[in-house]
Structures are given as structure tokens and as C-alpha cells.
């Protein structure tokens, strides 16, 4: 699938975006920390291509959301900078997912295609603790 109408989120190293992390999901039409939303993400090796994928919102700066990309590719299991999340409502086939920790996606609020699910507080707390310990978040 090719995206010819807009660029995807800007991607930056996680430690460059360190901030206070708060769990505040609220399925109200706005993306909030703790929610998994869907947005267009460009492929790292070819920025002219990409696909819709789930992203865990971990912060917000005005209309810019800070998110971590999810993947259902099981080869991510055990890879550095990837955290096993397990299955969730964001995946219609209920496949396990992995969260990429070393790269923050800066997504314009208008780039959110839909709200997918709320990550439970236990798993979100685990993500927050890793961001705090390994990536200079507070």
C-alpha cells in the first residue's frame, strides 16, 4: 500500500523526547496516553511507502501526539528495544504484539485514523517504567 497524499509521523529517538509519562485514557474521540490508535507509519527503509499500524500514545504536546509503534511480527520477540505486550483488542485477530521502545513517533492529531483500544494499566505501567529507566523519561 502506498501513501501518496501525506507524510507519516516524524520519527525521533526515544531519549530525545523524554518527558513525564501519565496514564490517562478516555475514549472520547481524542487520543490520550494509554490508548492505542491507528495512524500511517512510513517504512524505515523506504519513506515513500508505509502502512496503517497501531501506536501506543505515551504523551502529547498540543496537537502533536507522542507514540510507540506496535508490531505483530513474532520475530520481534527477544529483539533489543522491543517489548512483548501480548494480545489486545487493537488486533482483530488477537495476535500477540510487540512495542518498539527506541523510536518515538510524533503524530499530528489529524493523522489519527481511529482509536483502537485502551492498554490496561498494568502493561502501561511496565512500558512507563522501561521508558523511565532506559530512555530518560520521568
TrEMBL record:
It holds the Pfam family PemK_toxin. Keywords: Toxin-antitoxin system. GO terms for molecular function: DNA binding. InterPro entries: PemK-like, Plasmid_toxin/cell-grow_inhib. SUPFAM superfamilies: Cell growth inhibitor/plasmid maintenance toxic component (SSF50118). It comes from the Bacteria. Gene3D superfamilies: 2.30.30.110. The keyword Chaperone does not apply. Belongs to the PemK/MazF family. This is Growth inhibitor PemK.
Amino acid at each position: 500500500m502506498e501513501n501518496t497524499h501525506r507524510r507519516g509521523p516524524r520519527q525521533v529517538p526515544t531519549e530525545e523526547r523524554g518527558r513525564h509519562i501519565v496514564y490517562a485514557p478516555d475514549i472520547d474521540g481524542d487520543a490520550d496516553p494509554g490508548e492505542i490508535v491507528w495512524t500511517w507509519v512510513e517504512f524505515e527503509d523506504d519513506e515513500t511507502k508505509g502502512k496503517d499500524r497501531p501506536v501506543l500514545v505515551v504523551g502529547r504536546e498540543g496537537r502533536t501526539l507522542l507514540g510507540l509503534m506496535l508490531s505483530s511480527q513474532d520475530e520481534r520477540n527477544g529483539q533489543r528495544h522491543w517489548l512483548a505486550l501480548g494480545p489486545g483488542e487493537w488486533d482483530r485477530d488477537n495476535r500477540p504484539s510487540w512495542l518498539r521502545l527506541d523510536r518515538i513517533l510524533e503524530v499530528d492529531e489529524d493523522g489519527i485514523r481511529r482509536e483502537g483500544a485502551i492498554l490496561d494499566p498494568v502493561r502501561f505501567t511496565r512500558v512507563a517504567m522501561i521508558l523511565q529507566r532506559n530512555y530518560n523519561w520521568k
